[in-house]
Design goal:
With 196 residues, this protein is an alpha/beta fold. The chain has a single domain, classed as Protein tyrosine phosphatase superfamily (Protein-Tyrosine Phosphatase, Chain A), CATH 3.90.190. A 5-stranded mixed beta sheet has the order 1-2-5-3-4, with helices on both faces. It is globular, with a radius of gyration of 16 Å.
Length: 196
């Protein structure tokens, strides 16, 4: 049976995250989504992805690692390390991307390109990442140039999969990604999830 990705309606109940700039008050109400574990519910693999020597490498879940730029030589070694998929958030014309694509194809990896700009990421980009993860079981490397785009898009992907409210997703973006990102990117995470 194929699972469907649903974006649950998000409502602000006055809950706030004190570590997010501009949000300093204590939560006044608790929602069900606030009780969701920080691990994605669809993550049954207890063995985390192998560590990679790439900028800002971070294990995001038991099957997803994130980070920055990866060389073609490093891509070639991924299958032996248990990786099956690369999701690259860089544009195809960014430096090194074409060599990465060729190396991924030669290594037999699933290669998925979801080009995202630093402050132009959208909820649709996160839906594409969530769908790619659902369709490609196994260890996945989700990366961009530095890990900043990964941090923002990952927060939105978690919001989709876990039903996080905007402030909760902003907390993830500020505290649980590959690297610190500007406040403007954190705010965009919240804006992308705001009711329209």
């Amino acid at each position: 049976m194929q699972k469907q990705l649903l974006l649950l309606p998000v409502l602000l109940f006055g809950a706030a995250c004190s570590s997010i700039p501009g949000f300093g008050s204590e939560p006044t109400e608790t929602s069900e989504s606030a009780m969701v574990s920080s691990k994605m519910a669809t993550d049954p693999d207890p063995a985390p992805p192998a560590s990679l020597q790439i900028p800002n490498f971070t294990v995001l879940t038991g099957k997803v690692a994130g980070g920055g730029f990866i060389t073609a030589a490093q891509v070639s070694a991924l299958p032996a390390m248990g990786y099956t998929t690369i999701i690259n958030l860089q544009a195809p014309n960014e430096p090194g991307v074409q060599a990465e694509i060729a190396a991924a194809q030669a290594a037999g990896l699933n290669y998925i390109s979801i080009p995202v700009s630093g402050n132009g990421f959208t909820l649709e980009d996160a839906h594409a990442v969530a769908l790619a993860l659902e369709q490609n079981p196994g260890h996945t490397l989700l990366h961009c140039r530095s890990g900043g785009r990964v941090t923002a898009v990952w927060a939105l992907t978690r919001a989709i999969n876990e039903g996080l409210e905007p402030t909760e997703a902003m907390f993830v973006a500020a505290n649980e990604g590959c690297r610190p990102i500007p406040e403007s990117m954190i705010n965009r995470v919240g804006a992308e999830l705001a009711p329209r």
